[in-house]
Every structure is written in structure tokens, then in C-alpha cells.
């Protein structure tokens, strides 16, 4: 019995802990509506991480990099430490990630949705994540951090319906 407790304690130490987030996961059906393709430009955080998370949900027809003159664009400006180097991670790396270290990610992300030059909406998402980075939690919760940010942005768009408002304006002008 003593060996089992020691083994369980060692496994918990090596695995790190569950990440805690300031954002709650949005309660929304992401497949309820298919949104048009968007072009995403990102400043202040790893762009590939955000685009991958937006693709993962499948809510948008397509998520592309860059900007389009006649399509839908999302300019993302972030004040974030995701993807940055945190000094305490060196301790974990020097021990081959056997010693878990506390890590945290803090992001304030502003999404500006536009069609051509017309701005359809501006959405702000803030998240703070605290976790442990170790042998079994190598990302330290940064992927969950990004997933919550992208899911909250999609939930805000589905609630606000900026694409439907623009379609109604175009129909009224015809």
C-alpha cells in the first residue's frame, strides 16, 4: 500500500496540475451556424496558434492568413505572453521536465472584424491562466489558454451576428 501511494505521489509530481483560467468555456453550439471565410492577421502572439484554434472549431468556412481587399478580415492585436520565454521554464528544462514549475499566461486580445474597409465589430477577450509545466504537461496550459480565447471570440460573433447585419444592409441598399 505504501508503494502505491509513493507511486501516485510521484506521478502527480511529474504530471503537474490542472490549468486554471479566468475565462469560463462558452456554452454555445459552434456548429449551429456556418460563417463565411475569414482572413486573420495577428500582432502580439503566435499567429499559427490562433489560426489553428479558429480552424479547429469548424465554424468558419475557411481561416486564411493575411488580408483580403474584398473579403472578411480579422485583425488581432494582442498584449500576451503566450509563446514567450518564461525564466522558470529553464529550471524544468534543465531537469528534463521532471521538476514541474509554475507558469502563467496573461492575454488581452482585441479582434477587429471588417469587410473590406468597413468595420463590422470589435471584440475584446481577456484570459489569465495558471498552470504547472512538467513532464506530462509540456505546454503548461498555453494551448487551453488559446482555445478559450478563440472559443470566446467565436461565441461573441455568433451572439452578435455581424455577418447577418451586413447582409441585411446590402439587401436594403439594392
Automatic annotation (TrEMBL):
<keyword id="KW-0732">Signal</keyword>
<protein>
    <recommendedName>
        <fullName>Lipoprotein</fullName>
    </recommendedName>
</protein>
<feature type="signal peptide">
    <location>
        <begin position="1"/>
        <end position="19"/>
    </location>
</feature>
